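Form 7-S
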Amino acid sequence: MAIAKAERLMNLALCLLGTRRPLSKRELRDSIEAYVEAFGPGNGSAGSDDSFNRMFERDKDDLRELGLVIETVESLEGEVGYMARRDSNRLPPITLDAEEAAALGLAAKVWQQARLAGAASGALQKLRAAGLPEDVDPYGSHGALEPRIPVHEAAFEPLMLACRDRRPVVFDYRKATAAHPEQRHVEPWALECWRGHWYLAGWDRDRGAERVFRLSRITGKVRSRGGRYTAPVPDVVTVRETVASWAGEIADRSARIRLRSDAGYPLRAKATSVRELGDGWDELEIPYGHGLDAWLVEFGPDVVVLEPAELRADVVDRLRAVAKG
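Output:
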């Protein structure tokens, strides 16, 4: 019977933690029973060597995902060895009170719809092993609200990693007023969710200025580029404030619109007055600032702009651009 993967990983971890010098792949293959049973001793056939190498790389990645710090060391002869120093894998005592554990649990729940869910769950399991109180349930219910951040855009994960690693990226982006996307070269700074949509703030190399991009308008794949950033990253990236200023939040006028009675609840929340018109329509007065036309377009046929005339014209132009695209 083949040795279970958990036992194989445990034996590999013990070998790496117990050695005082780096061990080569061949030495690890000959020392761990599961590898000998599956592939035989080192210097076997090319096929068995390739299969062992693939399994070893997967096992090494799994151990690192579990939190083991594995060092790769190259000897003077050019041979690569591996070891896990005990001082690098020793955690200090971790003490969390109930409120701190609850905050961690809520943070993990937030990412349930993203690929980060597995990492968040694994992080809490590691905290359990490191001393998280057993009587605290970080996944327990702490209120009637279930915090979640929707992440449906394929661009989210590569952009998140690019922001973390400070890597320039290239992607195709379609503006709301454009029929076709165009390529953008961006140094990503930060991501933020606002009104259920994700936005990226960064330095647009082509325009030589800060820009904010809505992830749902990114088409195709996000591609990483080498090299360093050419513009300094601000200490505080105000994505929300920047997006708000472009979405009519900073308003100095008012606009009148017609809205279907069973639609546009975000618009109703911003309205300064609402009047029933009958026949399934209401009339709203809402704050009008730069970018309100882009927001109104999102509600499609449920919204009709009454005044001012320039706002109505901007909305019509945007709808025509969408129809052409």
